[in-house]
Description:
This protein is an all-alpha fold.
Amino acid sequence: MKNSIPITSSELGVLWTxxxxxxxxxxxxxxxxEKSEDRAAKKIMINYCKENNKFVVEIEDIFKDEGAxxxxxxxxxxxxxxxxxxxxxxFAILFLRLxxxxxxxxxxxxxxMTYRKDIRDFFxxxxxxxxxxxxACTEYLLEKGVLAxxxxxxxxxxxxxxxxxxxxxxxxxxxxKRPLNTVEVAHIYQSxxxxxxxxxxxxxxxxxxxxNDVRDHFMKGKELTKKIVSDLGSLLQQSDIQSPSTxxxxxxxxxxxxxxxxxxxxxxTTLAGFQLTSNALGIALSLRSDLPLKLTLxxxxxxxxxxxxxxxxxxxxWMEEPPQMEDRNHLIKSKK
Length: 336
């Protein structure tokens, strides 16, 4: 039954964005399901596809009820299930867990941008689903010994307040910087964890991309993520903290593309946007003065990579245009 209240521009926008991301992920997961040799991993991915196919249909129904064209998104033409495995058996769940982090944040953000009850309910249910899949991925990876936990620390015995200006100083001509606090470690650690997975992803994408400029773009992205892992890792090591690492998730030697260049470009650009958001949060919550500077410089490189990715998608006609607001000036001029 059609809702009597029309959707707003912001609701149209967030549903459109969600449709793009979910159709991309469903098609990628269907390929990984086909290649998976682990029953537990396959079950997690099947559950993801089952739940999110329902969400995709819901979005399509809302668009149709509103008289809006359904986005193209991604479909079976963007995946080649007969291609050889591009990554080892652990990559799919590592990648799915990372994407559920992104989805949880976006669901919360999109919920704040909606007004109509059924759409608010949609994002609440989508958020719950993302969190459940994230939990399942985390438990699976911990059981397999793949996921490195963040470092342990001696528990504080009493509350303290900052009593000296040097607490916020990270750049000193003489003397040592103060050790990182647990809030700073949390954001740095999670950023490194994400960039390690992204390095493997971009390496695999570079091996199979058809277009030369797309392949070069992925190679540059791979080198960028390696640099970020190294730079952030050195910050941890200065406080005698071991950087996260894992033997799992590495690409194979396959050069057969399981995904279209269009899908791989959208995926890499989406992850770059996620890392920019993550860095912004790290900047806001870092109290040592050198950390915001370091994260800002790294964010500039990530932004340039994402921006170049957008340009390539436009060049190859892969970027689907979001719904536009009315161009009032054009309408006025057309009446003359």
